[in-house]
Design goal:
Structural class: alpha+beta
Shape: globular
Strand content: 25-35%
Number of strands: 24
CATH architecture of one domain: 3-Layer(bba) Sandwich
Radius of gyration: 24 Å
CATH topology of one domain: FAD/NAD(P)-binding domain
Helix content: 25-40%
CATH class of one domain: Alpha Beta
Distance between the termini: 34 Å
Largest sheet: 8 strands, mixed
């Protein structure tokens, strides 16, 4: 919807998929949100192709999963193969402990259409199209934004500015935030096709280590498929995108009369990240903060985790008058993990190149694969998010076992086996305990937690608790952040009052 522009809680610049999701999460926290985009109304893009289970989990929390799921495709498996069909690695797509598929693919325009419609109908979101951000200034209290639409200038204000303006972010450049190049850069041709007749194509997410040209085949739906082809040295962009060349590249799978081309683009797959993801009350999210090769399919999903980390903290500052210093934890918590994810994605790209070369030159695979590629590429993608320092909004006393640990939705299930942890917590902090926590907390601390909208969860009757969560509860009380990460665990050495007091000192 649109309205008179005034003081906003959050201004988001850029209305691509990350900007759309960011706006919906802001609305979920009842933040007055302005979205600014230079495009006239909506132009759908087709870059991203997959969500992981954590992204799907977020959609469940903001009411988007049900309207989106009809457009989501569940591949049978993800795999890495040689051009002769030999399988190097194959992973079936399974339901995770969140009760959701480990990966779902999609055709981005279909997904964007649904999310944009919900944004337009959302009373907490104002959309300002056909407006280019030309300048901004910030102080401790607000960000002033100047936009231009034709000859008309608009002057807007927000408490916080979130940059979702992509790889060439105007906001990042104006802030003077340095980016660190990871010395990986490959150009790839992306082609989306729509099958106009029945063709037996596998429902897969496949990396093909082709000795002539590394290739990807990703099924986005029954009739829409993505093919990606690495450009060879010296290959001209304008020539490779010609229709006859694309037909030749795709001829291994389908004949020209069996499909129509939905999208053609050339993308530079490279790795880089910003030294910092924030400056004052301005934050970088997704592509505005880093570039990630898509081989591990984590670019979009990592951006969604940025949102998951940031918005609950802004909510605490705006709606609960918490200390603005807690926002400094956004960059502290995200930069390390993103570095690791980029490293893993680059390693997978190197692996694909190495295997392609090995097959071409008849070199033993063990000799062709770089050690760093071997070590990084075959690790679980999700485990990366559970590594890193405990800098940020975590207990200083938390042990290695729970450091950065995020609870799954199915850590608690109802009598029908449905995950219900997220429903029990909502978007709040929570204290889990085996007994009535009110009897253990000092009155002053209890009231402070109540004022911060804490949930106190101790009645597990008719519920099933995972063995790991039960182990935590046997030790003491556990404080969970709104993003479902463990803040800390009480013990005989650190009782719940001390743990809660430590948290209050960090956020108030």
């Amino acid at each position: 919807m649109t309205s008179n522009y005034n003081q906003y809680d959050v201004a988001i610049v850029g209305f691509g998929l990350i900007g759309q999701i960011c706006a919906k999460v802001c609305s979920q926290y009842n933040l007055r949100t302005l979205v600014i985009d230079s495009r006239s109304d909506v132009e759908f893009s087709s870059n991203a192709v997959s969500f992981d289970d954590e992204s799907l989990r977020l959609f469940e929390g903001i009411g988007l999963y049900d309207p989106l799921k009809v457009f989501l495709n569940r591949p049978e498996y993800t795999d890495i193969v040689l051009s002769n069909g030999k399988v190097i690695q194959r992973n079936p797509v399974f339901n995770t402990d969140n009760g959701l598929p480990s990966i779902c693919t999609f055709f981005q325009p279909e997904i964007e259409k649904i999310i944009i419609e919900t944004c337009k109908a959302d009373e907490n979101i104002d959309l300002l199209f056909d407006n280019e951000l030309i300048n901004f200034e910030s102080n401790d209290l607000k960000v002033r934004l100047d936009t231009k639409s034709g000859n008309k200038l608009n002057h807007l204000e927000a408490s916080y500015l979130i940059a979702c303006d992509g790889t060439n972010s105007f906001i990042r450049k104006k802030l003077g935030i340095e980016t660190i190049d990871q010395r990986y850069s490959k150009n790839w041709l992306l082609v989306d096709i729509f099958l106009n007749q029945k063709v037996e194509l596998e429902n897969v997410f496949r990396q093909i280590c082709d000795d002539k040209r590394p290739t990807s085949h990703i099924s986005l739906s029954t009739r829409i498929h993505r093919f990606e082809f690495q450009l060879l040295a010296g290959e001209q962009h304008q020539k490779i995108i010609q229709k006859n060349n694309i037909q030749k590249l795709i001829s291994k799978w389908v004949e020209p009369n069996q499909y129509k081309i939905e999208n053609i683009s050339i993308h530079n797959f490279r790795g880089s990240f910003s030294k910092n993801f924030q400056k004052g009350n301005i934050f970088l999210v997704g592509d505005s903060a880093y570039q990630m090769p898509p081989f591990a399919s984590q670019g979009l999903n990592t951006g969604i985790r940025d949102i998951l980390n940031l918005i609950w903290k802004i909510n605490l500052v705006i709606n609960f008058n918490c200390n603005k210093n807690l926002l400094l934890s956004y960059s502290l918590e995200r930069v390390f993990q993103i570095k690791q994810t980029i490293k893993s994605s680059i390693a997978l790209g190197q692996l694909i190149d190495s295997l392609s070369m090995a097959f071409q030159k008849n070199i033993p695979l063990e000799e062709a694969i770089a050690p760093e590629a071997r070590d990084q590429a075959f690790g679980r993608r999700s485990s990366i998010e559970e590594k890193g320092s405990n800098k940020g909004i975590f207990s200083h006393s938390q042990n290695e076992k729970i450091k950065n640990r995020r609870l799954y939705n199915r850590e608690i299930t109802d009598k029908d086996g449905n995950g219900c942890l997220d429903k029990m917590m909502g978007n709040c902090f929570a204290v889990f305990s085996k007994g009535n926590i009110k009897n253990k907390l000092d009155r002053g601390i209890y009231e402070k937690l109540i004022n911060l909208n804490f949930k106190f969860i101790f009645d597990f009757k008719d519920l099933n608790i995972s063995s790991e969560l039960l182990e935590y509860l046997e030790q003491g009380e556990i404080i969970i952040r709104p993003d479902k990460k463990i803040y800390g665990l009480s013990s005989t050495e650190l009782d719940i009052n001390e743990l809660a007091r430590e948290l209050l000192l960090q956020i108030q």
